Amino acid sequence: MMKKISLIALVATSFTLAACSEKPQGVVAAKKGDEKSHVAADNNYVVKGWTSGDPASWEKQLKTRSLGQDDYVKSK
Amino acid sequence: MARMKFICDSERCIECNGCVTACKNEHEVPWGVNRRRVVTINDGQIGAEKSISVACMHCSDAPCMAVCPVDCFYRTDEGVVLHDKDICIGCGYCSYACPFGAPQFPGTGTFGLRGKMDKCTFCAGGPEKNGTQAEFEKYGRNRLAEGKLPACAEMCSTKALIGGDGDVVADIFRNRVVKRQSNGKAAGANVFGWGTAYGKPQQASGNKS
User: Fold this and answer.
1) Domain B4-154 has what CATH class?
2) For chain A, what is the domain count?
3) B143: which of A10, A25, A31, A36 is 20 to 30 A away, CA to CA?
């Protein structure tokens, strides 16, 4: 009889305490890693002249593009 | 690669708002949200009116990152400050911390609900896969991953706003200001921010020659 009561108490306690448990709410775990910028976009708007995944090639492309903003160079 | 930076030449900006329009169009930014805006001082005063285009400055020691209670910000290898909208809770702390008013909040929800923060991404998207629809819907186009520079800078008609690798941008701006100075224009080395960024004009001219 005593064993039965203990068992029931144990089951009841486990159900009752289950409501007290919390899901992990840490945001750090949810943070995603961003893809590197030198990995070409998955669309049809990528300009030609550089290789996806090659940082040096991407940097060269952006430097060329940046220098295009210098109108003194353009007017020479 | 150095850090990505914007610089706006107040002597060239004509307050056309082309940069603002380009940004809104490129990223399909909703009503009420302006990732970039043009600020004008001394409006209407001849000779004293100055305009400057302002957005997120992608600070090296960003105050928004420091105050975010959920740590949703991160910095890319190129120094672009981005954030994860899946983590952002829209509290607005970053808005109070930012000296440029860059963080924006959509106001389209009911009962004045403030949505998740939106800001200039230097056209670098967000933490989704580069160039995907999911990235576009949350953060706009990822032009850097397309081998391009930010739309606002690339389409600026007077090239007042220039963006890109900080070293290249600084060289362009330095050359421009030195040329102005040598041509005897008033706004040469006295240009806004010059002294802070590059020191005294004589030193800069000397270095260049």
Assistant:
1) alpha beta
2) 1
3) A31
